[in-house]
Amino acid sequence: MNELSLIVLARAVHVLSGVAWAGATFVMAGVVVPLLARHGAEGAGRWLGMVGRRAGRASMVAALLTIVSGGYLFSALHPHDTSASGLVLKSGAVAALLSLAVGLLIVRPIGLSLARLQEPRPEGTPPGADVLQRMATLRQRVAIGSRVAAGLLGASVLAMAVFRYAAAV
Length: 169
What we know:
Layout: H1 3-39, H2 44-77, H3 84-117, H4 129-162
């Protein structure tokens, strides 16, 4: 495979996986997490947690493919780019890495803790007031973390979309 073919393949993987990562993140932050916060105490939390875990795994694979292919593309096409376009591209990459870090290191552990608290109890006993309070706190933290991750990823997507035009400004 020649270098141009590899670049085209990497670009296709980067764009498709980036769309999947951003889409999953925006749906989680804009739809699933708000529903969890609003209806989690009514019993929807367990189902929404399953949706979140499934989307989270798919999002993680997409994020890793995006970052690996993006790293290759940057090293192949912009190795020493210090232009305005290069700086916009680098800032977008940093925002994507920060979004991944927030998702992996903050949102995921909180979501797993929340999922453990939402597991069915023996003999259908309702959770105590302290557990309900802890679940509400965790839902709020997941919501904030998800919004931060989505905002960073949105900034990254915007930077990737406009980096070619930065030199014109």
